[in-house]
Amino acid sequence: MKNPSKSFPEKGVEASSLIPDMQEIKSADAPWRNGKMFGYIYYPGDEAAKVAEEAYQLFCCENTLNPSLFASLRRFENETVQMLSDLLNGGSDAAGSFTSGGTESILMAVKTARDKALADNPDITSPAIVIPGSAHPAFLKAAHYLNVKVIQTPVRDDRRADVEAMSRAVTPDTILLVGSAPCFPHGVIDPITEIGELALGQKILFHVDACMGGMLLPFAQQLGYPVPPFDFRVPGVTSISADIHKYGYSPKGASVILYASRALRKHQFFVHTDWPGGLYGSPSFLGTRGGGHVAAAWAVINHLGRDGYLVRAKHVMETSGKLQKEINSIPGLKVISNPDLSVFAFTSDTIDIFEVGDVLSEQGWFLDRIQFPNALHVTVAYQNTGQADNLLSALKQAVATVKGKRISSASSHFLVSFVKGMSRVLPEKWFRKISSVASGLTTGKDNDKHGMGAAMYGITASIDNRKNVHDLVLDVLDRMY
Fold this sequence. Notes:
- The structure is a single chain.
- The protein has 16 helices and 13 strands.
- Helix content is 46%, strand content 12%.
- By secondary structure, it is α/β, with parallel strands linked by helices.
- The protein has 3 domains: 56-300, 3-Layer(aba) Sandwich (Aspartate Aminotransferase, domain 2); 305-407, Aspartate Aminotransferase, domain 1; 408-480, no CATH class.
- Strand 8 and strand 9 (280-282) form a beta hairpin.
- Mean pLDDT is 89; it is low at 407-411 and 442-448.
- The strands form 3 sheets. Strands 1-7-6-5-4-2-3 form a 7-stranded mixed sheet, sandwiched between helices.
C-alpha cells in the first residue's frame, strides 16, 4: 500500500503546533534511549550530546562549500582530519578530508585509486578492486557508481580475509586491495599486515575500512586489549576510512578519509575551470556541506579527549566481552568466530535464530539480522553498557520460547517453504509477483514494524536464485519509500 500523498502547504504552521506534531510522529519510532537497541545509535551521554547539539546549532546555516568564506569551519575541518590522522598514526605527509559518512569515505578511496591508477598506467582498460566477501557493500556501491570492477574473494573459516585468495585474484588491472578493521558482519579484523605485504609486493594501493573501529580500536589497545596492527603503522596501508559518528560519538554525518600522502589525496579532488559560474573545486563527493556536522565533530572530540574516549571504550569492551562469553554458554547459541571488538553475531544450529530475534523484538529489544549463516547481530555502544544482564535474561527467555512453541511459527515456515518452492518451478515474472506479495505479508506485521522478521529473512536466505532475492529487496524498498 502506497503512502498517502501530501500536498505542498498553502500556509505556514506555527512552531507552537508544528513541533508537538513532529514529537507525536516521532513517538512511533523505535526507542533507543533505554539502551535496548544494539545498533544504529552511538550516544556519548547527555553532557557530550549537549555540547554536540550546541556546536551544531552554532553552525547549522553555514556552508563549507567555499572554505575562504568560513575560516572557522576550515579550521575545524582541518583539525578534525589532523586529530584522526594522529590517532591512526599517519605520518607527517598524511592528509585527508571530512566526509558525510563511511559510504562517502569509501567512495572517495575507490575514486582516488581509480584515478591514480589510470594516471600512472593508461593501459588499464578495466580497473578492478579486490575485496573480501565480508567487506562493506559500500565498496560495491562505489564500484557501481565509478564503473570499476569488483572481485570478491572468500574468507577463511574464522571469517577473516583469505590473503592467498586475494593474491590469486590480483591482475594487471587491479587498482586497490581492501581489508576491514573490523568487518561489520562478524566484528573480526582482517589480516592487515599480510594484505599490506601483498599490496607492497604487487605495488597496489591498500585501503583499510576502519569506519567501525577507527575511533575505538586505538583506545581498546591502550586499555590492554590485543588489537592486531591495522593503521598507518602497517607497511602498505595507503588509505583509511574512519567514522566519527560511530565510536567518535559525533552526530550522524561525520567521517574522514585519510591518505598516507598529500600527493595521493590530490586524485580525490574534482576541479572544473571552464564554468561560467567561476572556478569550481571540490575536495570530496558532496558540494554544499552543512557546517553543523563539522563543528559538532570537532567539538565532541575536543570535549571528550583521550580520557573520555578511554572511559567509554572500557565500558563498551567489558560489556561486549561479557555478552559474548554468556551467549556462548547458552545451549544452542554460539558467537561466530572470535570477534576483536564490540561488534559480533551469534547463530544456532538447533533453533531458528530469526524467530529468537522476533521474540526479542516483541519485548522491545532490537538486534539486526544477518545471513550466511543466519544470525543476530549486536553492536555494543556506550548507551548499551548497562543492559547486558537484562539482554541476556531476555535472550534466554526468547530461546526457551522458540524451543517450546515451535508450532506457533508454522505459518512463517509455510510461507518460506512455499516461496522457496515456487522460485524453482515458476517463470521469473510470476515468481517476482508472488515474492512481492510475500514481502508485503512479512513486512506488514504489527510486531515487526521496525524491521523485517523471521519469515522475510527466511525467504531471502532460502532462495537459491539471488536475482530473485535482489528483486524482492527492491520491492521492499519501493514499499517503504
